[in-house]
Automatic annotation (TrEMBL):
<dbReference type="GO" id="GO:0031966">
    <property type="term" value="C:mitochondrial membrane"/>
</dbReference>
<dbReference type="GO" id="GO:0070453">
    <property type="term" value="P:regulation of heme biosynthetic process"/>
</dbReference>
<dbReference type="Pfam" id="PF03647">
    <property type="entry name" value="Tmemb_14"/>
</dbReference>
<keyword id="KW-0812">Transmembrane</keyword>
<dbReference type="InterPro" id="IPR005349">
    <property type="entry name" value="TMEM14"/>
</dbReference>
<comment type="similarity">
    <text>Belongs to the TMEM14 family.</text>
</comment>
<keyword id="KW-0472">Membrane</keyword>
<dbReference type="GO" id="GO:0006783">
    <property type="term" value="P:heme biosynthetic process"/>
</dbReference>
<feature type="transmembrane region" description="Helical">
    <location>
        <begin position="62"/>
        <end position="81"/>
    </location>
</feature>
<protein>
    <recommendedName>
        <fullName>Transmembrane protein 14C</fullName>
    </recommendedName>
</protein>
<keyword id="KW-0350">Heme biosynthesis</keyword>
<keyword id="KW-1133">Transmembrane helix</keyword>
<dbReference type="InterPro" id="IPR044890">
    <property type="entry name" value="TMEM14_sf"/>
</dbReference>
<comment type="function">
    <text>Required for normal heme biosynthesis.</text>
</comment>
<feature type="transmembrane region" description="Helical">
    <location>
        <begin position="113"/>
        <end position="133"/>
    </location>
</feature>
<feature type="transmembrane region" description="Helical">
    <location>
        <begin position="37"/>
        <end position="55"/>
    </location>
</feature>
Length: 139
């Protein structure tokens, strides 16, 4: 009976089917938490871009900036995962990167890496803005 309840929880996404307190296992808490996978992917993109800049060109500032902003984006995704209304770190990080990398893309007209990061940052700003503008669901 227990696996069918877990399957029902996954398919229906109805939190009244099985509460985490009803389960002897704590892993069911994951089903009620929405994870910001897009935010974590964006953080990985930014951090890996910094690492690639170091590997290909030996750029220590690129490595430092990539790891710093990737870490901030990851922290912001963690905050959004815990509280969907807490978007400010993610919004600040993606806004800063959109401005800096957008300026670099405008000056160089090279898509890699400035255009890619600027575009991804603009998409993150759009995603976070939509989350901010959505009305809370009434119970």
């Amino acid at each position: 009976m227990f696996p069918y309840l877990v399957l029902a929880q996954l398919v229906c996404c109805n939190s009244s089917v099985l509460q985490p307190s009803d389960s002897p296992f704590g892993f069911l808490d994951v089903f009620n938490m929405s994870v910001d996978w897009v935010g974590y992917g964006y953080a990985a993109l930014v951090a890996s871009g910094g690492v690639m800049g170091y590997v290909k060109a030996g750029s220590v500032p690129s490595l430092a900036a990539g790891l710093l902003f990737g870490g901030l984006a990851g922290f912001g995704a963690y905050q959004v995962s815990n509280d969907p209304n807490n978007i400010w770190v993610s919004l600040g990080t993606s806004g800063s990167l959109a401005a800096v990398m957008g300026k670099r893309f405008y000056g160089s007209r090279k898509f890699m890496p400035a255009g890619l990061v600027a575009g991804a940052s603009l998409l993150m700003i759009g995603k976070l803005s939509m989350a901010l503008l959505q009305k809370p669901q009434e119970s």
